[in-house]
Amino acid sequence: MLSSFPCRRSHRKGLVFHFVFFAASAVIALALISDQVPVVFAQTKPQPSATASVAPNVVRGKYLVESVAVCGQCHTPRDSDGNLDRTRWLQGAPVPWLPAKPDSNWPLSAPRIGGTPPASDADMIKLLTSGIWTNGKRLRLPMPQFRMERSDAEAVVAYLRSSSLKQ
Description:
Strand order of the largest sheet: 1-2
CATH topology of the domain at 56-165: Cytochrome Bc1 Complex, Chain D, domain 2
Structural class: mainly alpha
Helix content: 40-55%
Radius of gyration: 29 Å
Number of strands: 2
CATH class of the domain at 56-165: Mainly Alpha
CATH superfamily of the domain at 56-165: Cytochrome c-like domain
CATH architecture of the domain at 56-165: Orthogonal Bundle
Largest sheet: 2 strands, antiparallel
Strand content: under 5%
Number of helices: 5
Distance between the termini: 80 Å
């Protein structure tokens, strides 16, 4: 009778192993059929993404312009519903805000910065890294006084000059 205990223990270990194996297999199968995990075969070549042909600097610049600095909020006109007009992306627009207190130096429009920015690459990089414009002065509010790293400023200028603006 005492000799039957080791058999039960090894039988339990076998059951636990089978249960874990079955559970892991079920999770993998569900992941594969749910289309959440792409199936890749060793002999197939991955398809290039839409941004693969675009220089990495331009991709980084697009991210900085659209998601970090949100330049389009001021430099892109809006449609009649108040949405950004992507067909005129970064082509200049009326400044959508007024100052809290009257300010005669407040700009009424934001310039075009997409396609051909209003200054040379070196001047645009200087602006984005130091906040200083071509006249040696800081830009007027509401323009943020950026202090970007040089590599980020170069990426922004690459994007602004790129054909990626044609969306």
